[in-house]
Design a protein that fits this description.
By secondary structure, this protein is mainly α. It has a domain at about 30-80. It contains three helices and no strands. The protein has helices at about 10-25, 30-45, 45-95. Helix 1 (about 10-25) packs antiparallel against helix 3 (about 45-95) and helix 2 packs antiparallel against helix 3 (about 45-95).
């Protein structure tokens, strides 16, 4: 049975919530990067070094914006995937009849889809 594919939509959704929490820390990443570049330029003693920071900042500011955007969409994408998995399971289940009782083996660490035990 090791070649089966499956997903637990509830666990996936919880992990999506965790990804959203992490992604929220990305808010303002580009602004923080710009501030760090300004501080580094100010702290640099040698003019050649100080003059290089603005070019470095401009070259990488777009990357910081991209990281922020990708981080913000990550959690939503994981949650949307979990919801789609749950919808697919529900639609597929409509064609089956319940045999009742306890299952002979655990599925998603549960023996009953109704009680969650």
């Amino acid at each position: 049975m090791g070649d089966e594919v499956g997903a637990n939509p509830y666990e996936a959704y919880q992990r999506g919530e965790g990804a959203v929490t992490i992604a929220e820390t990305f808010t303002g990443l580009k602004s923080a990067f710009d501030d760090a570049i300004t501080a580094a330029k100010t702290a640099a003693v040698e003019p050649p070094c100080a003059n290089a920071y603005p070019d470095f900042g401009e070259a990488n500011a777009a990357l910081m914006a991209d990281i922020q955007e990708h981080g913000m969409s990550l959690g939503g994408n994981v949650q949307a995937g979990a919801q789609q998995t749950a919808n697919t399971d529900s639609e597929a289940g409509d064609d089956f009849t319940d045999v009742g009782g306890v299952l002979s083996r655990q599925i998603n660490e549960q023996t009953s889809r109704y009680t969650g035990e």
